Amino acid sequence: MSAEVAVLDRAPARAETPADWGEAERARIRAKVARFAPPPAKGPDGRLELVGLSREELVAALGGIGEPAFRAKQIWHWIYHQGTTDFARMSTIAKPLQHKLAEHFTVTRPEVAAVQTSADRTRKFLFRFRDGREAESVYIPDREEDRGAVCLSSQVGCTLSCRFCHTGTQVLARNLGPGEIVGQFMAARDSYGEWPSPKGEARLLSTIVLMGMGEPLYNYDNVAAAMRIVMDGEGIGLSRRRITLSTSGVVPMMDRAGAELGVNLAVSLHAVTDELRDELVPLNRKYPIKDLIEACRRYPSASNARRITFEYVMLKGVNDSAAEARALVRLIAGVPAKVNLIPFNPWPGSPYESSTPAAIGRFAEIVNAAGFSSPVRAPRGRDILAACGQLRTAAGKPSGG
Ligand code: SAH
Ligand code: SF4
């Protein structure tokens, strides 16, 4: 990571005003993340990886080898509905064309470098991408029902450095591409044998949360492309209501995500004063609480049917007092919201302790009495370092070839 980015993100100054935000600010964010671009979709052998292309890009790729647009529809179905990775198994396509496709294209998954399953059935995957970079995903089964959520990573590492987060101790290596993001979900499905995409039936991998490694709104274009693929009704077909994007508060990009994707929004709040939030979530120095809450009020899904989730990590003696619970309900008054209280998950060398159950209970009660649902998130997969904020891969250096 360059020194310039380190300065921008690790100790941002509160120099800008909300009036500066908007297209100019979004352009700055885009320029800043461009240098962390994922590898090109074309592999070293010259074949183009199809997973991650939009429908339009798939049509263009097939056009490039003289195939008509309807082929794209067929192949899309094989890739995203059937989960096929082998052209030879695409039985609606004639053999000669299967060979031709295999000469020009690939349909792959990220390599599963490691899998661990926790005592509570949470399963953590370490994925290795083509350039050797790695990221983790976690499948979190519901406690009672036969379904669950897949927590996907959006970046290898993170440019931000929230004090309580293990990923934040790892510098950003690079952004993940659309195929790498959707590929995590598809590989997790492979692991549970959930192909073809079940239509309307119960399924294990029924929800996506963008809460793994990285800040999804600092890799917006790739995350958006991946979510459009996941939401496409002729493939994986997850509804936007089954997708939640979690952000540490990249205010200008929240508006865009709301307008273009309309997925559920989770906001990592964690503190009720700028003084404390500046310390816990350094991005707050750039986008302070007042502007963050205003962006939440503007978020299009913020109606009673679809509430914003405020995430609040419970840190013993730091942000867990009754006075802070009361300040929290004043802060978010009028926002259709729920508050997810997350007991702090420790990691090697972490500087905090989790609040006591009594403190969490008292906090939850105050928030609840003010009319906000305030579930306490049960830690899942702690024994395999798969719980919120525990993900981190080695050194951010390529470990592969
Ligand atoms: N970068 C995004 C999404 C990834 S972090 C974000 O910050 O929102 C997903 C959630 O885990 C965030 O709410 C984050 O604040 C929380 N988290 C991070 N470290 C944690 C820890 N050690 N214990 C509990 N929650 C943690
Ligand atoms: Fe990055 Fe989110 Fe961790 Fe903060 S909490 S360092 S934004 S992954």
Give me some keywords for this one:
single chain; 401 residues; alpha/beta; TIM Barrel; DNA polymerase, domain 1; 2 domains; 9-stranded mixed sheet; two-stranded parallel ribbon; 12 helices; disordered N terminus; disordered C terminus; binds S-adenosyl-L-homocysteine; binds iron/sulfur cluster
Could you describe the 3D structure shown?
Strand 4 (123-128) and strand 5 form a beta hairpin. The longest helix has 14 residues, at 178-191. The strands form three sheets. This protein has a nine-stranded mixed beta sheet, covered by helices on one side. Helix 3 crosses helix 4 and helix 6 packs across helix 7 (220-231). It is α/β, with parallel strands linked by helices. The protein folds into two domains: 5-9 and 30-37 and 110-384, Alpha-Beta Barrel (TIM Barrel); 52-106, DNA polymerase, domain 1. 32% of the residues lie in helices and 16% in strands. S-adenosyl-L-homocysteine binds at residues 162, 164-165, 211, 215, 246-248, 268, 311, 313, 342, 344-345, 388-389. The site of S-adenosyl-L-homocysteine has 16 residues, from strand 10 and strand 12.
